[in-house]
Amino acid sequence: MKIKHLLSESVVTEANVAAKIGKDPKMAKMLAIAFRHDNTLPKSMIAKLGPKPNDTDVINAWSELLDNTLRVNNYGDLSADGKFDEWLTRLYINGVADYEDINGEGGDALGAWKALSTRGKLRPDDQDFNKFKSIKQLQRIRNDPAYRQELSRIKDAELVNKMKREAKEVVILDNQRFRAIVPLNYGSCYSTDKGGGYVPNFCTGSSSGASWFKRYAPDGIIVNVVDKENLEDVDGKWQFHAATNQLVRGDQERRHDVSYNDGRFSELFPGLMKEIIAGLQSNAEEIKSNSKDITPGGYDVGKEIDLIKSKYPKSIASGEKEPEPEEEPPQDEPEAEQPQNEPEPEAEDPDTTPGTWLVTQIASGHTARIPGESLADIHGKLLRKYPDSTIDDYTYVKQ
After folding, report:
1. How many CA atoms are closer than 13 Å to the CA of 281, on its beta-carbon side?
2. Ramachandran region of residue 309, left (φ > 0), alpha (ψ -120 to 50) or beta?
């Protein structure tokens, strides 16, 4: 079923979306399927539902998650507005957004739109809510320079100041162009994201970011990077978390395609990843000492650096100068003539020879090292183990 068709339907007026879904068996079935394949759902919720929840259990769980998302954002409680529940549900069942997208970014985007709408501050072409087909489209409202000043007045400015006062972080790089930090609490993520310029969509800095920080930070170091010369640009703020295979710019475009984002980061900021690693090394003791309340014993910075190098090879290699060609000594005698018409040896295709491949599931970001006789052999192993998947569900890098 296409998203265009679903979103063109009239919105529900009930505050709780469970009643609406319960009346539509097709929607209930689609929700159950999406729920089963979403790896970003809270683990506690999944455990509570058990291995085989029925459709009613899934509907009620989803309704509870949506209410919690819409109740807490920077612009007030939205949980009583039924059209937002249904709009987010339709994005979810059509695969346009997963739970992390909705909970991490959806509430704030909707809150910004409604705050401007109820105050009559929207342009006529932005007032029609039904025109928005994704969270990303709705986020344009929040980042539109024409609205930004008004939204800043609407939000409680003291919240940002409070977060700055409470921020706990280690600055690993701060020069004329760049600032990079290791955030050690939600306050640091929030104040970095909202501290001027483009407002990124990172879930750790959203209104529900405290829970996302607690989810991600124990797995490994988070690094936030700010390009001071391009604060208003979507590429002005980046965040990476090697433990979950993520490296994203402000709008999290192609969030699960780490190879693509590694390449883009390396082209935009050649040599920057090496400076970040140097900053991690020189501040290793401070990072370890101040992260003991996040993970037992604190972060192992050496291990984190090794992980960063393995996950972002293009960024690590960027900025290296090509070796200067050596001058050839003068020749006293002419070089021997090369035999003519001899065919060049054919290069061996690395995908047809034995080795070990780094295989990453695009949807979840999970990575595994799999040995095989060839890339085709790796494909066969994956499809035998996961018959519901396709080879296009993964990325492959031979080591």
Report:
1. 9
2. alpha
